[in-house]
Amino acid sequence: MATSHDLLRLDNIKKIFINADESKTVLQGINLSLSKSDSFSIVGPSGCGKTTLLLITAGLLSPTEGSVWMDGSPVHAPNRKIGLVLQHYGLLPWKTVAANITLGAHLQKIKIADEELITVKQKLGIEDIDHLYPGQLSGGQRQRVALARAILLRPSLLLLDEPFAAIDTITRERLQNRLLTIFTQGKFSFVIVTHNIEEAVFLGRKIMVLNNQGAGIKTVIENPEMGSLEYRNRPAFFERCLELRKILEDFA
């Protein structure tokens, strides 16, 4: 059971997928705890179960064994305290940006004040595109719309599945900066799944490396210097990136 200071806790998560007469264990022995106003990066080679772990955390996929706790309560289904942003954004192509941003809040009957809506859009730099449709947006703009929609749900926990994977490097870093700024000013925690070493180090106060051979955790790296926009320019950032790279090279 989650302790009083844990926002999120995963206890001994195991997941087995069964297909016909075959079974595959993709996760086992996964333990994770996240406090309020904290962040966690999850990295590892393809097929190691990163997205599966995120879907289990979100309550969208049941573990074969183990339990997920959010604010002291078990998670068996989608939870209003948990926001999820998938790699492919999940925007409705027939709705405008304005409608996509507020869709989640409307569905959950959350009243959003005009001031709150304006502030979120300004922080993400999308205040002038309300009239456009997703097909008219760049990848970076679509990602910011998806983030705005999730943030307006006022989640205690935000789950991000490779959110910036299809975006060029400079735009990616700008969006990372915006996310970090909102995170440091807000009251939510987040877990981000990524293949990008620099992104994992820049955004995760802890970095979990999953193992695709043993289906468990290879290691967890402490990253206490995370939290500053200037972190990328500091020696500690490059040292942590090198440490993580060496660990991931063992999978090659």
Radius of gyration: 18 Å
Nearest-integer average pLDDT? 89
Number of helices: 7
Counted beta strands? 10
- How much of the residues is beta strand, in percent? 25-35%
Order of helices and strands: EEEHEEEHHHEHEHEEH
Helix content: 25-40%
Count of distinct structural domains: 2
Strand order of the largest sheet: 6-7-8-3-9-10
| Poorly predicted spans | none
The computed structural class is alpha/beta
The CATH class of the largest domain is Alpha Beta
Main sheet overview: 6 strands, mixed
CATH architecture of the largest domain: 3-Layer(aba) Sandwich
Task: Describe the structure concisely.
33% of the residues lie in helices and 26% in strands. The chain is an alpha/beta fold. The strands form two sheets. It has a six-stranded mixed sheet with strand order 6-7-8-3-9-10, sandwiched between helices. Strands 2-1-4-5 form a four-stranded antiparallel sheet, with helices on one face.
